[in-house]
Amino acid sequence: MLLKVDGITRHFGGLVALQDVMLTAAEGEITGLIGPNGSGKTTLVNIISGFLKPTSGSVIFDGTPIEGLEPHRIAQRGLCRTFQITLNPQRMTVMENMLLGAPRQRGETILQAILHPGTVHREEAANLERAWDLLEMVKLAGHADEYAGSLSGGQKKLLALAQVLMAQPRLILLDEPVAGVNPRLIDDIVDVIKLLRQQGQSFLVIEHNMGVIRALCDTVCVLDMGRVLAEGPVEAVLAREDVLRAYIAAGGQLEDEPASQTDLSTG
Amino acid sequence: MLDFLIYLLTVVGIYGMVSLSLSFQFGRTGLVNFGQVAFFMVGAYFSSIATAILGLPVGLGFIIAIIAGGLLGALMALPIGDLRQDYWAIATLAAAELIRIVFLNVNLGSDYVGAAYGITNIPGPFREYFTTTTYGYFYLGLVAVCVVAAFLILSWVGRTPYGRLLKGIRESDEVARALGKDVRVARIHALSIGGAVAGAAGSLYAHFVGFIDPQFFMPIETFLIWAMIIMGGPGNPVGALVGTLVVQVIYNSTRFIQFASEYASTMAALRMVLIGVLILLVILYLPQGLVPERRRRYGARPSGKGSANTGGGHAA
Amino acid sequence: MIQVIIDSLIRASELALIGVGLTMVYDILRFASFAHVQFGTIGAFVALSISLLLPVPPVLAIAVGAVAACAITGLLGILCDRLIFARLRDRAAAILMIASFGLGMVMQYGVQAIWGAGPRSFPLPLTRPWVFFDARLSPTGAAVIVVAVLIMLAFHLVLTRTHLGVAMRATADNQPLAESSGIFTERIIRIVWFIGAALGALGGIMLGLVAQLQANMGFEIMVAVFAAAILGGIGNVYGAVLGAAVVGFAENIGLVINWAPIANLLGLTSSSHVYIPVGFKMGIPFTILILILLFRPRGLLGRHA
């Protein structure tokens, strides 16, 4: 198991956001994390990626416990995440965003940049190559010099994915990768993720869009009110009555969601 | 008249260096520092103490000032990790004032040195080789060299991957963290660099004017520096210098007009009001300042390369 | 000791009035306004001018002037929001801070341009302070404390017992939610600016009554006000009052305490009398602020971590 979440509990004052959550994600697979609004998915993702400390419980990544570590340390170990609201620096260009993602850059420490200009130069060139490859894969190569802020919602999500790929993570936590994306682009995003998975990339995907979950995930875990309701192969879990009931109780829907959020920008 | 102009240009140059330092620091990290004058002051004082009181050569004083400014920058940066930005802004203001109060109350050596009396007889470098008039030209040249050096150094830093990292942190520190970047260390370095440049400016100032006291380092100076970088456009060294020029022109414009003494203080106050209003107008209508940030362009991919192989490996 | 308490209460009153306004603005708009203390400066000077114009006995003139100045400054607060801060609602907190810093300077130097840089005083008649138990309390000082307490009580009642108070707290908690519940949040925001600025003006007037008026009086007190608000927990008006009390007390008692035991323990000196030099009095609130920010930024009653 690449990722093992064991007994994670998180309190906020008197509120129990997560209670005894157990979750596993296998290498080379796409694991889904679903649940109605308010079920604690975001809190769990924040705890796994280090942006929040759990009240109790452990998170084991690749055999070592990572709960409570700083986010950047966790990322350096190979667990990276994207954000629900695309945060990738809007006032930097697409290419700058990509280069930012490259890991272990000598040039990012000022002293090293001064002392080893040759190495820095070589690293930049290599990173640039890789960035072009990834940009072509997500079809953003033609937008390299545009500000990230001027991309459409779907393109921003693709950029976030490509950016996190630069860091060569073992496991990518995708936080709602198609939320607010134009339906045409949703297919593109799904295709990219499928392609990456074929190449051996592992994912943990949080999503509301059941069509996407069905298309991508091998196994899925359902959260409801801070507890794990069900875990297992996708079709089996989604057919369960208690899962259906949890969604209806929370006012959600389990069918493929139509594009309820239109994307207001181009693309 | 010419002498005064030389003097003015020298002071503008020194201010320009402090502007460059704040522009680098705010522009690159996005952290609001209301205590910039503290670096300037620490540089000036340490350099003066080293030379006027301890008798060390001016060059050494200059270096000490740079180190002192850098260390203070690192010190101020330490609490940032856990502190919200607005709290940090207030803390920098408080720290700068605290430092000023300390220098105001501490006697350095004998009775009339330090505290409110300040430090006098600060030696100018190479003073004995020049006459009074030509020394003015020399010092202007010296300051000009320093400003250019600071400009080049800070511009270069901005173009390194480190500079890009800072920009990324400024725009979205969560994404930077999620990509494995040590945000804290990067910020500490940025503040040290800014502090070091401002400290150098402080040293230049002290040796130019020959005496300093805490009155020169009031928060109004920080306000003026902010005015300069907001007008010119934060984050960009050219903008910092342009802004310095604009603000200094306004600030000194009324000096050349003679007013009856009872209007002098009103004019002085109105100058500041004008500068403040301009800052607000720039913030409201020209958020990028007069000189907007330039983006690094990468063009299109060089032809002959490219494949869809993107997994853990590299391009064919 | 009683003198210390009296001085502390007076100081706390000034800080509390300005601090409550500051913390309210923070609660609703989520940024620290570096211009807020200038409402105190403006309020004091406007009150001064009005009171000098009125052909009535000085105490009455000052009272009328104070009320008028608070109202005027309150309106000024709304104006500042409309002209500047409302237009920056979607910008980063950094920009708001810088804008407020700029606005503060405009206000301070505006005051200086109009009233000059030199110190001024309210036209108070000379009175003998009351003396009891070794301590002096001037009628002015007593009035300051009484007014502050009354106003704080009134404010508390407004916050808890009126529709307006509930609406204010709802808007501060969760603006979108408040809006969808039918509260006109923009209007609430305007009211908050009015009250905040008016309270700030009152604080400045109190400061001017007890000490002197100077164009930089707002700036001088700024860090102390921030220290009070943050110590109490920014965003919490009761915290601001509590913080004001602590800072006011610390300022006054800090000079009186003999720090020898601690100094000896730290090996700094072996003398038996160690006092903080008077020149450092201003440094006390600064030090408190830095200490709080280092060790407990949330403050005592803080809502915003």
Structure write-up:
The complex is a heterotrimer of chains A (267), B (316) and C (305). Chain A is an alpha/beta fold. Chain A has helices at residues 41-48, 71-76, 94-101, 110-115, 117-137, 153-166, 183-198, 210-216, 234-238, 241-249; strands spanning 3-12, 15-25, 30-34, 56-61, 64-65, 79-81, 171-175, 202-206, 219-224, 227-233. In chain A, strand 1 (3-12) and strand 2 form a beta hairpin. The longest helix of chain A is centred in the middle third of the chain and has 21 residues, at 117-137. The radius of gyration of chain A is 19 Å and the shape is globular. Chain B is mainly alpha-helical. Chain B is built from eleven helices and no strands. Chain B has helices at 2-29, 36-53, 58-77, 85-105, 132-159, 161-171, 173-178, 183-209, 219-232, 237-253, 261-285. Chain B is globular. Chain C has helices at 2-29, 36-53, 58-83, 93-115, 139-161, 163-173, 175-180, 185-210, 217-232, 237-254, 260-265, 283-295, and strands spanning 130-132, 135-137. Chain C is 70% helix and 2% strand. Classes of the chains: A alpha/beta (267), B mainly alpha (316), C mainly alpha (305). The interface between A and B is large, with 60 and 43 residues.
Features:
heterotrimer, A: 267 residues, alpha/beta, four-stranded antiparallel sheet, 22% strand, globular, disordered C terminus, C: 305 residues, mainly alpha, two-stranded antiparallel ribbon, 12 helices
Distance between the termini of chain A: 38 Å
- Give the helix tally of chain B: 11
Order of helices and strands of chain A: EEEHEEHEHHHHEHEHEEHH
**Which stretches of chain B are poorly predicted, pLDDT < 50 over at least 5 residues?**
304-316
Task: Please work out how many helical segments of chain A DSSP would assign.
Answer: 10
- What oligomeric state is this? heterotrimer
Q: Give the DSSP E fraction of chain A (strand runs of 2 or more residues).
A: 15-25%
The percentage of residues in β strands of chain B lies in: under 5%
Instruction: Summarize model confidence as the mean pLDDT of chain A.
Output: 84
* Most residues in contact: chain pair: A-B, 60 and 43 residues
Radius of gyration of chain B: 22 Å
User: Which secondary-structure class do the elements of chain A indicate?
Assistant: alpha/beta
Helical amount among residues of chain B, as a percent range?
A: 55-70%
Number of DSSP strand runs of chain B: 0
